[in-house]
Amino acid sequence: MDTSQRMQRSWRQVAALAAFAVLMLAPTTQAKSKKVSDYFLVCRRGDPDFAGCVKRSIEDARPRLVKGMPEVRLPSIDPLRIEQLEMQEGQGNFRFLMRLKNVSVTGLKDFTVRSIKADWALGSWVLDMFTPHQHFEGQYEMEGRLMSLPIQGSGDATMDFDGVTTIGELQLKNVTRKGKAYVSVDSFRWKIDVENAKSHFTNLFNGDKTLGETTNKFLNENWRDAFDTYKHLPEEAFSQFFTELQNRFYEQFSIDELYPE
Ligand SMILES: *[C@@H]1O[C@H](CO)[C@@H](O)[C@H](O)[C@H]1NC(C)=O
Ligand SMILES: *[C@@H]1O[C@H](CO)[C@@H](O)[C@H](O)[C@H]1NC(C)=O
């Protein structure tokens, strides 16, 4: 490992604390008669093809996931609105900070579930998903050094990703509330890979046209390096985002309602 790799490694530890996402909170409604089966195909925990059932359940829910299910606190996934994504790492001369606000993500409706492994008793899941195209837009603020290039600006940002593979390693735990058993997310590791990426930032360097164009061009020509160097930041931000999203749903239904015997 050379010095720069070692430095990247230690920035990552800082970054682990620094990447976070803020959900757009859907208003809560307190309908008493909510049933899981009104929203999802219910999978029995003893089903010999439990993982296959969960896969079908997710695919079957696609139109409702796209529309959003505010009654059970699930927002629309297409467009998916994220109030803020913040990614930060490094220190001093190597610091990099990017804040994306009012983010809208489109393309998630075309997801496919490539495979699911699920061990009900251990609460361990691996979800392998693919999306052909994802488009992000929002307002950004950015400063510091990106791949040793000084960068600074605030304005509008768009990012396009083709062939997005997302692998989520999910560990659930059991929690008891008021004598009832519920599940909750213990950890959710998120790995992202893309086949192609393109971005555009307006108003870099306070609107300096030449510097802005050069920087946008540099980032697009070197997208693979940039993505590989910084992908742990969105991975951590999205892990948090989807942990919060799942927990909001899991809080509402006991284990026996979610996965009956
Ligand atoms: C947030 O984004 C939406 C569309 O993506 C846009 O219409 C709206 O003006 C933005 N709001 C702010 C405060 O920038
Ligand atoms: C959670 O509780 C259920 C029901 O008692 C049990 O079958 C399962 O193994 C538990 N899961 C974990 C991760 O401990």
UniProtKB/TrEMBL annotation:
Keyword Iron belongs to the record: no
Family: Belongs to the TO family.
Keywords of the record: Biological rhythms, Signal
Cleavable signal peptide: 1-31
Organism, scientific name: Gryllus longicercus
Lineage: Eukaryota, Metazoa, Ecdysozoa, Arthropoda, Hexapoda
GO CC list: extracellular space
Gene Ontology process terms (BP): circadian rhythm
Name of the protein this chain belongs to: Uncharacterized protein
